[in-house]
Design a protein that fits this description.
alpha/beta, Glucose Oxidase, domain 1, ten-stranded mixed sheet, two-stranded antiparallel ribbon, 12 strands, 18% helix
Amino acid sequence: MTDIVKTADLVDSNDAEVRFCEMQWRMYGKRKGFHGEVVTLKTFEDNRLLRATLEGDGAGRVLVVDGGGSLRCALVGDQIAALGFANGWRGLLIHGAIRDSADIDAMDFCVMALGQAPKKSGKTGHGARDVTLAFGNVEFRTGQYLYADMDGVLVADRAVHQAG
């Protein structure tokens, strides 16, 4: 994927249809944005369900993970990011922490998160997939469309960009 859709342009042309996630994100990876159909996951300091989800075909999809905003441990490291990339996921939005940030920065992929933590997460499988998430004054639902770049994150009920 080399097609980055500029969020500023989308707001200018589709302001009534997009919602802005009112959070500041850190961006990791060589790609500076992503867009696609949303898949949601809620978990807290445990990444087993996240890994299992990224093992599936991600073609055209982005994974939005509500990790409760925890910065005590990382939900994504280099191996999980590489798994997402290998299985065609367009990008990851993590409301929590990552680790192995230098290794992820070297990947042709994009992960957005609140920050980093060196400690790995639990592996019990705690969490739920395809549930409504709420953070940054936005609700995220599986099937919506997400746009992310260096300016921020937008959510829409449908794809609102012009295919190029």
